[in-house]
């Protein structure tokens, strides 16, 4: 079980690193955020399995993760229609 915990923590750190390094495109940022959500879901599942608790909170967490992904994709479509690309530099309102 400890290998799965280390692997899920590694997934979480790589998702955060990918989020920090891919600041140029909004789509890549959303994808790395979804990877972080999946890693947190795996860690939460392992935690609940170790202590033999109920999995109801996993359903709530997964629902919130799906809502976050849908909201991000809606923002991406709106910004693509408004600005024509998904570069973060073009979304700056100070220009």
Report what the structure shows.
This protein has helices at residues 2-21, 26-50, 56-83. It has 95 residues and is an all-alpha fold. It is elongated, with a radius of gyration of 16 Å. α1 runs antiparallel to α2 (26-50) and α2 runs antiparallel to α3 (56-83). The N and C termini lie far apart (51 Å). The chain is built from three helices and no strands.
Query: If helices are DSSP runs of H or I spanning 4 or more residues, what is the number of helices?
Result: 3
Contiguous low-pLDDT stretches (5 residues minimum) are none
Rg over CA atoms: 16 Å
SSE sequence, one letter per element: HHH
Query: What is the number of beta strands?
Result: 0
Distance between the termini: 51 Å
Q: Portion of residues in helices? A: over 70%
Largest sheet: none
Mean pLDDT: 87
Query: What is the molecular shape?
Result: elongated
Strand portion? under 5%
> Helices and strands: which structural class?
mainly alpha
